[in-house]
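Q: Fold this one first, please.
A: Sequence and structure below.
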Amino acid sequence: MTVNTLPNAFARSSSPAAGGPRLYLREDELDLGVSLIFKAGDLLKAATEALRQQHQVSWVEARCLCELLGHPFPVLKLAAELGLSKQAMLKTLDALESRAWLQRAEDSRDGRRKIVHLTAQGAAVATELALAMRSCLAAAYRVAGSEAVAGCDKVLSTLIGSPTGTASSASSNVSPKPTPNRVP
């Protein structure tokens, strides 16, 4: 069975020789894409394993640190970005704050909101973790080439409903996904 799932710009060509786009993807092609995304996520997680053990941080704590690298977030927005409940987010923040890796401050525009930002120590740990994942991703990007990088970014940003993608989550039954935090 084939599924008409992607606009022409994202379709795979019917064969390398044909070079022409096709509108339909087979279920096995879609299943392969899902499997590759899961495996890539696992590899990025594994790239940080030694550092996470060294710093004694969980994967969720590591993701939180990396998400905060570059700019602060309101607590509830950070929870949404990480896909955590408010309670799980607060537990994670408490653990990181007890290590002096982050601080919470009152939002100057809304006293009810708390803004989370990294301390210098937290930024140093987050940078180490991000560098491990960047190295892994950069190596794959070098092998794949610039066109593949652009295509990968376009597909993934479309999948998560990022403003850089062209898909609208409003047109589907899928809830909007968080925008990735690009780290320079």
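Q: Good. Now the second chain.
A: Here it is, same layout.
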Amino acid sequence: MITRVLVGVDFSEASKQALERAGSWATQCGVPLVAMHVLQPPAPMLPEAQIALPDPAWLHTMEDHAREQLEAWIRPYAGASAIVKWGGPAEELVSEADPQTLLVVAQVGHSTLERLLFGSTAARVVRLSPCDVLVVCTEKAK
């Protein structure tokens, strides 16, 4: 039994299509829609062997901006909520899901070389997920 629909949003056109599909599923199932954006922490810079960590105020500003943008994206979906986290996109989406969640992600079209070099968030989500996953085939992926 699905108790909520969780969708990963990276603000791409593909994730907009995934959000639309997730919204439809949430409405059909009569369950809450939760949209999540995952910010990836910047790598520390090592100038002259000294570690320079990012300014916490800058990180907070990034998080606030992402939350505002995500809330604007979900405004058309009554009762939808937004989550912004830091980390790896696949791992954070999976950590937020439980067995009763329908997890929705976009499959973005990558070349074979890109998949080999960078992997696929959608593939990692499918492999690690504790729940059903809907991979939305976007126009770019066709």
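Q: Anything worth noting on the second one?
A: Residues 114-118 have pLDDT under 50 and may be disordered.
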